[in-house]
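Hypothesis: this fold can be encoded by more than one sequence.
Test: take the structure tokens below, design a sequence, compare later.
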């Protein structure tokens, strides 16, 4: 069928201008005294915000929550901090019912607390005690007691305060590296600390960077600037380096002096008898 080319015989442009998008653009232009071009730019930006923060597809047992992004620094007012919309599994009948039957309501609350904080962190956000209290319909003081209880069991709760190292004690990153240097596997560390393997490997990479820079003769302040890590974390990493270097730790030696592929193949060839030698035997 031949396509007719004509000057909007059916009034398509006028009809299109009556859709919801153009109606909103007209209202923005009128209410805020904007030019149509600026109003349309605002509409496009708002549409993007809606897709990021409101148009979230959820499955059974999940909730959508606005949390502070994990890369937001400490001390920034919460109203000014960048937020991320995250999906959290509040109810997981595969595990929650079993935990409830065995450990009661306090046990299932702590079980969910572990799951929620880890899911938030894996999506680039951090939950505070107040967030957790709201989601789990309890008080912030109860969450604080739960976190203390779980820490006593060797589990880490990744909240905004703990991630940004607000408070005394070693940072969770340093403790994780300490576990690794003591010989724990990634699976063990993940289970003990409630961190994903990806996070553990990222912390290990940061430690290697700090240790390598120190061995190359850089000062602490220089290392802090190059690695973009806090002075406290750099100090703790260097203390770990000093402790495990003195004991000639094998894992430390492996990560700071990785074998080149040709060295590995060379060692392998030297350790394996040649076919000719086998025949002579």
């Amino acid at each position: 069928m031949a396509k007719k080319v004509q000057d909007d015989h059916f009034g398509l442009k006028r009809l299109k201008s009556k859709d919801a998008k153009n109606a909103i653009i007209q209202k923005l232009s009128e209410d805020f005294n904007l030019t149509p071009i600026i109003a349309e730019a605002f509409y496009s930006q708002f549409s993007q915000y809606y897709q990021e923060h409101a148009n979230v597809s959820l499955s059974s047992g999940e909730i959508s929550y606005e949390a502070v992004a994990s890369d937001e620094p400490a001390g920034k007012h919460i109203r000014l901090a960048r937020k991320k919309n995250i999906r959290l599994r509040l109810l997981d009948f595969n595990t929650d019912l079993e935990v409830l039957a065995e450990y009661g309501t306090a046990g299932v609350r702590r079980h969910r607390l572990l799951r929620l904080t880890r899911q938030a962190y894996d999506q680039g956000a951090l939950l505070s005690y107040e967030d957790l209290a709201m989601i789990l319909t309890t008080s912030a003081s109860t969450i604080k007691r739960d976190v203390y209880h779980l820490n006593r069991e060797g589990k880490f709760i990744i909240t905004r305060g703990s991630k940004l190292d607000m408070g005394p004690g070693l940072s969770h990153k340093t403790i994780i590296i300490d576990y690794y240097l003591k010989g724990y596997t990634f699976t063990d560390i993940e289970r003990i600390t409630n961190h994903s393997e990806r996070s553990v490997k990222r912390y290990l990479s940061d430690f290697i960077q700090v240790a390598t820079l120190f061995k190359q003769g850089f000062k602490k302040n220089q290392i802090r600037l190059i690695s973009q890590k806090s002075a406290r974390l750099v100090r703790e990493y260097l203390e770990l380096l000093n402790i495990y270097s003195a004991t000639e730790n094998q894992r430390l030696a492996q990560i700071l002096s990785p074998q080149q592929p040709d060295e590995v193949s060379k060692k392998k060839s030297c350790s394996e008898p040649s076919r000719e030698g086998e025949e002579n035997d």
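Residues 150 and 156 are 7 Å apart (CA to CA). The longest strand covers residues 62-69.
Hypothesis status: open.
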